[in-house]
Design a protein that fits this description.
Blueprint lengths: L1 E7 L9 H10 L2 E8 L7 H13 L4 E4 L4 H29 L9 H17 L2 E8 L8 H16 L5 E8 L10 E7 L20 H13 L3 H4 E2 L2 E4 L2 E3 L17
Parallel strand pairs: 1-2, 1-4, 2-3, 4-5
Antiparallel strand pairs: 5-6, 7-8, 8-9
Amino acid sequence: MKQILLITDGCSNVGISPVIAAAQAKAEGIVVNVIGLLNEHEVDEMGAEEIQEIARAGGGTSRIVTPAKLSQTVQMMTRKTVAHTIQQIVGKELQHILGDAKLESLPLDQRAQVVQVMDDLGETASIKVALLIDTSASMKQKLSAVKEAIYDLQLSLQARTGSSETAVFHFPGTGAHQEEAEMDMDWTRNLANLNRLFYKLNMRGTTPTGPALLKVTEFIIGTPAADIYENGNFRHKDTIVTGNAPIGKDGILSDYIV
């Protein structure tokens, strides 16, 4: 199960639409979750709207939180996405077996067995979470909370039975990659690797969220960006995503301030 968890505090202002980039990630089988990180009494209505749209297009959830609530929100969203994905998989299998019948139509003992299978899969399924962190200038005072949240997520994932790996990117990048994401940490289960996160950042005002999402999608699926983005269109197998990103009804969007 593959996820991108985007943590940002404002609107994108460089490059392609992050909503379209999130839709492409979803088409590649990657769920995009988004956390808007705002200080107490800080309000950004445009940023909040964009956060909702990115998550909806990426088939994920969005939350707007303060730094104090970030760690528990990161863990909750990651596990909720796993549970939702498992429910979808099991639901499709049951539909194939039962036709139009619902889970509730099964005898109680069989229903309990299905629920147990879903619970077991939640702990044993392989998970990969790529964290994409906005490090534009306005995020400077919030990065300590971000590092703590990543560390706590890693601890939480290590408690699972199944394989759990995280990778970390920040944007904007530096040098030739300043309009994309830059990798801080490749796939790992090792907490010791977190010590070098965000070392010597050159924090600037640009927020290229769309190009950053595309870069991380490329990293996860192992396909160069040029192969999935051409002439303003995203290509996925026999489909083209263009214009406004489609909003799938299977998105699990839920937004509130915590």
